[in-house]
Structure formats: C-alpha cells, structure tokens
Amino acid sequence: MRISLFSFLISITCIALITIVVLDILNIQNLWELPKSLEVLNLPSIILVICGVLLSTTLTYPSSDLRKSLPYLFLLFFQSKISEKELNLDANRILGWQQLLNHNRKKNRNDLGDSLHNTFEGYVFSLLSTSYSEDQVRELAKAKIAYRYNQMQRSARIYSSMGVYAPSFGMLGTLIGLIFMLSSFDSIEALGAGLSFALMTTFYGILLANVLFYPIEGKIRSMAENEYLRSMLILEGILLIEQGKPAIFVNDALKTYSNKLTVEDFPNLDKDPHQSELLTSKKANQDAA
Fold this sequence. Notes:
mainly alpha, 76% helix, disordered C terminus, 289 residues, single chain
C-alpha cells in the first residue's frame, strides 16, 4: 500500500474548500466577498457539492482510474462514431483484406499488421503472423477486447457514483443551511441566507447528477458496447477470411453477427443491471420477430 499524491492533494484541497464554505455560511468567518452579480448563483453551494463529490470519488477509486476517466467529461455533447454505417464500412474493409490475402497470404498478412499498427485489426493480423493457433489468436484478441471494455465500464461506474454523491452533498448543504437558520431567528437577513444555501445546494446536487454525471455514464456505457461489438465483428471477420471462407459467406456472417449478441457476451455486464435489462429486452424482441 502506498499513498497517492494525486488523491491526497485533491482530498486536502476539497476538505479545505468545504471548511471555508461551512465557516462562511455559519458566519464564523467571512473569507470572501462575492460581487452582486454572482450572489444569485450562490457560489458556496456549488463549491460544497462539487468538492464533496470530488472528495468522495477520490477516496473511493484509485487515482489511475480517475485520471483515465477525466477525458470523458467532454463527451456530453458528442456521439459515438461507431454506427451501422461504420460497421458496414468495416465489413467492406474485411472483404478487401480477403482479396489481398488471396494473392499472397503470408506477405500481405505481415504488411497489413505493419500498416494497421496501433489498431485492433493490426493487433489481430500481427497475432496471425506468429505461430499461434486460431483458438489462441481468438483468446488473446478477446482478452484485449474485454480489457478495453472493462476499462470503460470502470469509468462509467465512477460517473455513476458521482451521480449518487451529488444529491447526497446537496442534502448535506440543506442540513447546514437549516442549522444556520435555526440559530438565526433574530435576523431576517441571516434566515434568507440560510434558506438560500439550503435550497441551492439541493438544486445543484440534483442538477449535476441528472444533467452531467448520469448522462456521461450512459454515453460511456454506450460507447463501450459499440466498441465491443465493432471489435468482435472485426475479429470474427478476420478469422473467417483466414480460414479461407468465400466472400459471400463472410459478408452474410458479418451482417448477422450483431443480432447474435446476448447479455452473456458482454464481460462483467452483471455489474450494470440497467444495461442487462436493456439487452435482454432487445434479444426478446429479436426472438419474437
């Protein structure tokens, strides 16, 4: 066990800011003066909720997972690049690779591994260029797919936890505001300040959870699912052309592959009951059709 400097610094900073907010709202010590234009936002409420969420998340998850999860904050207004059209393009690329391999299998397989380096398909071709059997190649490739999938699921769980923490710290702010109000009945101004803090922390907690953290979690899970499907489709397609299957068989197999996926095909999906229910419903509708 060792101390993470990243987690330690964030925790200390959050604790310091939360302490400043509590001292300020209780009028024990006024540590900042806000411009009139910012008073309506109730900055102490925002600070309490955000710092509380960061503190709990930092104490719960490893710093390495937190750093990997930070870029996903920018996903809110973006959609996954992987679509049905993109999957069809991948199928066409696989058929193009088949034509290359039919001419000079060993040489073109090595060339594909080199030209597609740093991609999943390049990794599969590099495995095929070794002495590994087809089953070993499939096992190693699936392990790489599962690692990436589980990595994204860990990031999704972090944002899911943040969505839980935000309203909780909003309620904490509400309690602090109520305590301040109960001790300040002799001052109308103090009652107003306490009530404003009490309500605004709950407002910010609910807002951040449902407009930021939960939507990002959903997008990460959707991206993980799409990437898993695309990688598995590419793997199966490459193995089919390596087996020398006819182009029409490969094309038909790839078109129907996504409909064959079930809940059990996704690694560790039992940790996400909402996704499990969604995929089970999808499979039931396909069977009924």
